[in-house]
Amino acid sequence: MTRPDTINNTRILLMCSDAELAARRCAELALAGWQVIQAADEVEALSAVRSRRVDLALLALPIQETIGMDLPGVLRKVALAERLPVIILTGSSQQKCRCEYLDSGADDIVSEQISGRELSARIRAQLRLKELNENLAASRAALQQSLRRERELLAKLRRDNAHLRVLATTDPLTHAQNVRAFQDIL
Predict the structure, then answer these.
(1) Total Cβ atoms within 10 A of residue 146
(2) Closest by alpha carbon to 23, among 11, 9, 40, 7?
(3) pTM exceeds 0.70 for this model
(4) % the chain with pLDDT above 70
(5) Given this model, what pLDDT does residue 166 score?
(6) Which of 71, 72, 117, 62 has the alpha carbon at shortest distance from 92?
(7) What is the mean pLDDT of the chain?
C-alpha cells in the first residue's frame, strides 16, 4: 500500500504534447506531493525512464503516436522498475479509442478533463498495484531461493543416505556385503 510518507519519493513521468494541459497537470501532481518529470516528446520520455527511477507514466498524446510506436511497451522495456504503470490521458470518449489504448498496454485510460483529485486517486491505485506486484515478485524470489536450498539439502541427504547404506551393508575390511545386506536381498 502506498504510504503518505512515500508520496514525496514517487516520480511521475508526465508526457504531454499540449503545453497548457501539461502545465496544469504538472501543477496538480506537484500539489498532491509527487515529483513530476516532464517530457515533451518520446525521446525525452525514454531518456527520463532509462536514467531515473520513474514510478508511473502519465501520457497525453494523440492515439496514433501512442499506439503506432507501442509507447507503453517501449517505456516498460527501458524502465528500471520491474513494473511501470501507464495511464493515458485522452480527449476521446469513443469506446474504440479507449479499447485500442488498453490493447496497446495502457493500465488505465482517463479523460483529459478529469479532476485533479480523481487523477490522484487513480495514480494512488496504480501505485498500490505496482507495490503489490513488487511484493509478489520479492516473495516469489524468496520462495525460489528457499526451494533451491531445500533441493540442495534433499540431494545431500540422498547422498548421505546412500553412503550410510553402503557402510551399513558392507564389511569395511573386505568390502564384501555383510549379513545385513544378505537379509535385505532375501
Answers:
(1) 10
(2) 40
(3) yes
(4) 91
(5) 87
(6) 62
(7) 85
